[in-house]
């Protein structure tokens, strides 16, 4: 694996690392303009969760719209499919078609919250208002034949404010709102007002298209991380999520960039695996794009045919990334000094005399396995790089199993009853601590509470990979 220390340093500092989202982008229709329906979305979501070599990690879906294709403002059927497959959602509001369309998008968003309630909102990791709208108004986009009108910065800020007002008082009230655009859009200071209005920043970065910067597969890793760092520099300290990236498996050459399955596999290993190892929120482009069409270039990691049964065009395994472990899908701090306070899915563990953290995990459905609950804290990181954890005061932890899984809206006052399963009198960096050894609750969602004892004050990003940080469930025979 071709990781560079600079690349890992950038990835480690990306806000929103931790219990990271891992998924794909899903359009509302196929290449022949046929609308995707419930069965299509459900089948695609299931196929993503069954990808070989990924340990079932790709269970998040980024949508571009809330509207079922071909209707005015009917809720997109992907919502019900996500609920039924327990697929996390990064929602999208299409913003490159004017106010009337945005109004319809908001109508569908509010209708989904009203119809599905917390079964829907608990899956929502964020709402993206727009996708590459700022890029579309640039001379580069227009010169490349872009036909969508895009949106001006002031328009996008207005749309963001409309969405905030619309979700207030609904089950989506705590959903963070962001925007997705190219790294060049964020590097343009005239778009700073958009960044200011957001909770998180979504970046689309494709080294394949960077003809002006040198774009061979050999420099793709460096080119990608340059774009990511540029975005982070413009983010005003807000979390940066990678909402699109990928390398085409076929199509015409662009500069020094050759589209091929072999190069796409190299890109997956160099860029995707490095992002996954550091827990960066990532929606890859794309799972499959050749159903009912022949796009050129094609970015789908699966060829045409039955999406569940055709093999990927390249290996999706990542070194040191696919051991039999389960990472939390929900990490929710609670505050005993303010029991009714809802902190929400913070993606960070917060442990102190007044702060505890709740973790929710999906246990694999295979019966007859043994589950070891472990807490991992690596040795201190090189001080020249930001560390994923801060140990302000020594102490230990006590871990309890909840009578039911927590949700993103659980507070100290509403935390389920729990039973202690293990403790660590003193958490010392550089160790893995075994907390519980028991038969796996196959196919179930389980919740745990971690409390500070002995004065421990520890904040950490949940990070998978060789230098793992946080609470994990190891699964063995």
UniProtKB/TrEMBL annotation:
Keyword Signal appears in the UniProt entry: yes
Matching SUPFAM superfamilies: (Trans)glycosidases
Ranges for domain Ubiquitin 3 binding protein But2 C-terminal: 328-465
Enzyme class: hydrolase
Full protein name: glucan endo-1,3-beta-D-glucosidase
EC number(s) on file: 3.2.1.39
One Gene Ontology cellular component: extracellular region
First and last residue of the signal peptide: 1-19
Catalytic activity: Hydrolysis of (1->3)-beta-D-glucosidic linkages in (1->3)-beta-D-glucans
Organism, as annotated: Massarina eburnea CBS 473.64
Sorted UniProt keywords: Hydrolase, Signal
Domain of life where this protein originates: Eukaryota
Record's subcellular location: Cell envelope
């Amino acid at each position: 694996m071709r990781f560079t220390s600079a690349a890992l340093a950038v990835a480690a500092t990306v806000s929103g690392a931790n219990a990271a989202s891992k998924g794909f982008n899903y359009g509302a229709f196929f290449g022949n303009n046929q609308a995707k329906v419930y069965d299509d979305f459900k089948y695609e979501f299931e196929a993503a969760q069954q990808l070989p070599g990924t340990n079932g990690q790709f269970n998040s879906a980024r949508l571009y719209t809330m509207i079922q294709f071909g209707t005015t403002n009917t809720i997109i059927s992907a919502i019900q499919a996500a609920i039924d497959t327990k697929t996390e959602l990064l929602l999208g509001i299409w913003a490159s078609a004017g106010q009337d369309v945005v109004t319809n998008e908001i109508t569908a968003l509010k209708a989904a919250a009203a119809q599905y309630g917390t079964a829907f909102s608990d899956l929502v990791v964020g709402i993206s208002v727009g996708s590459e709208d700022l890029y579309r108004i640039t001379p580069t986009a227009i010169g490349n034949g872009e036909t969508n009108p895009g949106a001006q910065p002031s328009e996008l800020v207005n749309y963001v404010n409309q969405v905030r007002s619309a979700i207030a008082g609904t089950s989506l009230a705590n959903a963070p709102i962001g925007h997705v655009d190219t790294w060049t859009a964020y590097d343009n200071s005239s778009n700073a007002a958009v960044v200011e209005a957001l909770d998180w920043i979504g970046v689309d970065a494709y080294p394949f298209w960077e003809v002006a910067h040198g774009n061979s597969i050999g420099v793709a890793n460096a080119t990608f991380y340059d774009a990511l760092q540029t975005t982070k520099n413009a983010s005003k300290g807000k979390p940066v999520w990678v909402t699109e990236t990928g390398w085409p498996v076929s199509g015409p050459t662009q500069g020094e960039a050759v589209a091929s399955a072999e190069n796409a596999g190299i890109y997956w290993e160099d860029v995707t695996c490095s992002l996954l190892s550091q827990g960066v929120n990532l929606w890859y482009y794309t799972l499959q794009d050749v159903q009912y069409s022949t796009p050129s270039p094609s970015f789908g990691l699966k060829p045409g045919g039955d999406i569940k049964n055709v093999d990927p065009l390249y290996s999706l395994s990542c070194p040191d990334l696919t051991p039999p472990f389960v990472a939390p899908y929900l990490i929710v701090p609670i505050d005993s000094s303010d029991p009714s306070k809802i902190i929400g899915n913070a993606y960070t563990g917060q442990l102190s005399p007044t702060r505890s953290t709740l973790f929710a995990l999906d246990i694999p459905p295979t019966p007859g396995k043994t589950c070891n609950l472990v807490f991992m804290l690596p040795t201190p990181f090189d001080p020249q790089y930001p560390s994923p954890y801060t140990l302000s005061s020594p102490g230990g932890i006590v871990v309890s199993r909840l009578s039911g899984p927590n949700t993103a809206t659980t507070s100290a006052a509403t935390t389920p009853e729990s039973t202690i399963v293990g403790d660590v009198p003193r958490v010392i960096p550089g160790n893995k601590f075994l907390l519980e050894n028991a038969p796996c609750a196959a196919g179930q969602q389980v919740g745990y509470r971690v409390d500070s004892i002995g004065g421990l004050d520890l904040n950490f990003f949940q990070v998978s990979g060789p230098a793992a940080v946080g609470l994990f469930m190891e699964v063995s025979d």
